[in-house]
């Protein structure tokens, strides 16, 4: 999961109310087995995830691919938010909670993970199914 920890940008896929996909990059952190990020509560991705929490997370590289399918949950616990803020400061030199807008802080917990290295695909292709928490 080192790639999840060091990645700067995470591509979040969600579903619009009419069923069309919506994909946007965000800054985030890998913390306690989830990709954690924030967005404005009124953003399209926030509204999508509130209505339909099924989501995908992709890293930037197609050569060193990591793709997560999981469920989004809103983070409201002050201790969890403080831990995410601390991880953001370490990684991005800013607190997530200092971002503008009305915060919607999210953790996407993996249910299925796909990963591979392009240089030796398909031999390196791997799939994990993780139990629900």
Count of helical stretches: 3
What is the count of structural domains? 1
Structural class: alpha+beta
Helicity level, as a percent range? 10-25%
Task: Tell me the radius of gyration.
Answer: 15 Å
Q: Let me know the largest β-sheet.
A: 8 strands, antiparallel
In the CATH hierarchy, the architecture is Roll
Low-pLDDT segments, ≥5 res: none
Task: Summarize the SSE layout with pairings.
Layout: H1 2-6, E1 9-15, E2 21-27, E3 29-31, E4 34-40, H2 44-51, E5 54-59, E6 64-74, H3 78-92, E7 103-117, E8 126-129
Antiparallel strand pairs: 1-2, 1-5, 3-4, 4-7, 5-6, 6-7, 7-8
Which characteristics define this entry?
133 residues, alpha+beta, Pnp Oxidase, Chain A, eight-stranded antiparallel β-sheet, 3 helices, 8 strands, globular
Short description:
The protein has 133 residues and is an alpha+beta fold.
What do you see in this structure?
The protein starts with a helix and ends with a strand. Strands 1, 2, 3, 4, 5, 6, 7 and 8 form an 8-stranded antiparallel beta sheet that branches. The chain has one domain: Electron Transport, Fmn-binding Protein, Chain A (Pnp Oxidase, Chain A). A hairpin with a 2-residue loop joins strand 3 and strand 4. The protein is built from 3 helices and 8 strands. By secondary structure, the chain is of the alpha+beta class. The mean pLDDT is 90.
């Amino acid at each position: 999961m080192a790639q999840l920890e060091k990645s700067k940008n995470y591509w979040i896929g969600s579903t619009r109310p009419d069923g069309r996909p919506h994909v946007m990059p965000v800054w985030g952190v890998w913390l306690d087995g989830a990709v954690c990020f924030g967005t404005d509560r009124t953003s399209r991705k926030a509204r999508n995830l509130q209505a339909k929490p099924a989501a995908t997370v992709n890293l930037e590289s197609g050569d060193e691919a990591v793709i997560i399918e999981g469920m989004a949950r809103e983070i409201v616990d002050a201790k969890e938010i403080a831990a995410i803020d601390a991880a953001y400061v370490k990684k991005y030199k800013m607190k997530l909670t200092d971002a503008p807008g009305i915060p919607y802080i999210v953790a996407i917990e993996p249910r299925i993970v796909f990963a591979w290295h392009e240089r030796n695909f398909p031999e390196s292709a791997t799939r994990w199914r993780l139990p629900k928490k």
